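User: I'm new to structure prediction. If I give you an amino acid sequence, what do you actually give back? Let's try with this one:
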Amino acid sequence: MKNIIFKSKKSLLCLTFCGFLLSGIAVNAVDAKTAEEIKTVRTEQQSELDRIEVLLDNARKQTNAKNYPDAMGAYQEAVKSLQVLEGTKPEAVRKRLDGEFSRFRAEWADVIFNKARNAYQAGQFDDAINLASEVLMIDSRRSSDVQKFIEQCKMQKKAKGFSDNLENEIFSKEYQKKQENIDILYREAEIFFRNKRYSEARSKLEQIYIQDPFNTKANNLLERCYRQMYKYGVERHKADLEGLAAYSSWEWNQGVQQTSVDRSIKTAPEVKTQSTAEVHAKLESTIFPNIEFDEADINSVIRYLDRGAKRYDSSNEGISIIAGFDSTVASTLPKVTMSFSKIPLSEVLRYLTKSVGLKYKIEDNAIIIGVGVDDMQTEYFQIRGDLISDIAPAGEAAAGGAGEINTAAVVGGERTATNFEEFTATVGQERKISSESLIKYFELRGIKFDEGATIAYDTRSGRLIVKNTLENLRRMDELLRQLDLIRFPLVLIEAKIVELSQADVNELGFDWAFNVSNQDQNWSLNQGANPLRHFQELNFPNERGNASNSLVKDFKLFPNFGKNLLFGSDLNVSLSVNALSQNSRTETLSTPKVLTASGQRAVIEMKEQRTYAEDWDEPEVTVSGQNVTVTPSTPDWGEATDIGIMLDVLPVISPDNYTVELHIISRVTSFVGEDIYKVPIEITYIRPGETEIENREAEIKMPRIAVRSVDVNVKVYDGETIVLGGMIINRNVNRNDKWPIIGEIPILGRIFSSQLALEEKRNMLLFVTTRLVNNDGIPVRRDKQRALPDFYR
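Assistant: Good question. You get back a string of structure tokens that encode the predicted 3D arrangement of the chain. For your 793 residues, that looks like this:
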């Protein structure tokens, strides 16, 4: 049994070994087959890549020969062949082919596009469209340019077809006339365009566009006009923004008006009434947009005005207009013929009453128009006692007599005031102010008192009783309001002092220097001199700009030239090149303010004090034995000099409390520089057998002070600005130095010359604004457009 088991194990072991041996042989056979297949694929791929390279070479040759269709076929075949290949090497060839193919299509598309443009220029629009479509098929990246080109071709084709289809034998005269008109319009547009009148040129070109929309020449010029107008529009927008910024910086601060609120609760009903001033204001604010009457009846005109007074009133309240006559009187009045646009109701009533010989008055919130209407109305004005004291001093009031009624209150020839006296006598009041003084006071302030006009003062109630026309009553109300606001007027003087400085410098010069060293004692050359330099003025040596403008300075062209040849001395020739182009601008702004009373002088000073020499003592030479002492000139210092700006203003308020008389003295003092004077000092030494003279120099400096002043008397309105100018300094320097003879040589002579152009301008502007203010500093009149410079108006 054991032998059988042992033999079985042995047989199994042999079978296993044989199986492993057979499987190894099979694997080796499969690997050999796979390697053979890979080698075959690689060989086929390489041959295909070689064929693709041949196609690409052929495509390049066809491209160079301008045979683009064959080249396109070769490229397309190469692309198609590469699509089926995989691997790293085909991928690299594919990337290279994509870039090369893209450049080929762009080149071919450019060639076809140029042909299309040539066809367009030749008027062959169909061929141009076909060629442009072909470009789109070759290179789709040009779609935007191609579409625009095709649209342009279609538009020109349509224009040409329209022109070709015209029957000249029918429209020849009209067509020629139209073309002549277009030519005239185009020539006018060209003239306007050259003179930068773009708006008028645009108008002419738009007329051409209406007549001939396909006129290319006119359309191109119209586009240029639009571009120029847009450009200047942008600049105008910037200027507007800068103007707004300037307005913000120049506008004065407005004070806040004091207001009071009545917090009491009223339980009783109130009847709404309007004063004469309020009614007059409503007449001014009611604007009729259009009025047309042709031989109209007076009653129909009054009815139309009555309806329109409510329709065109902003508050929709209106005012009643009533006819104060019957139909019999109306039939005798002339017909009304008027034509107005945008006119206030007050002017309509004035023109209407004058044209038909009527009068009107305001009574109980209504306007009555009639024949015998008295246009004089009576109003009561509350007035302060201190203001009455200013109108008529105590002595004049006493002279009028207490309890007397001056019949001269009615102004005119032999007129009387019986009715008015009876009216005022019923009040039972004393009048101590004469009517003449009242009339004189208000007439000086613009209130007229014609025939029938009266005025009186009620001392118990403190009111003025005035009978006058509607217009004069309105002026009286406005004047009294202003007088109540400003009892003791103060004047706020605001000044803006602007100084503008501008300097333009252009210089180009060549300076030659000639120096001698190791000079022979028998002859010498002043080392401080410059014999090859241009002439130098004493006070303004080397006149030029203030900047350091030497591009090349003391460049030694010939160092130690001629050593020991000329009297045993060394010579040096040096060159300096001065070049400068400078444009500078400075602005100085000062804004002082001062508050003063009427008739009191106000002074604004912005200055600094400096001390300058007023005189110099003579130099002294003192001899003491063998010692000689030289004492130079010494300055005598005077009082300090004010350098800066001084503004002296004397304001006087006119009786109308609106205009101000100004006496302005403006002085600007500035330090310009110093004048240098050389004083020679000669010292003589006398010794036995010889006399020696020694020369010395002393410098004396005197200041140069510039003063610019203005002394004017002007009258300005409250809140208005005046400008004082004309304090201008303009300095021009032109220098042209050159060597004699050598400087005249063309081109070469330029390096032996020096030229300078210097222009300096200084201008000072003084803006002075006067404002009337109350004692609390609040302006009497508020206006958002005050205190602006003249260039803004």
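You can read the tokens as a compact description of the fold. Here is one thing that stands out. The chain is about 40% helix and 30% strand.
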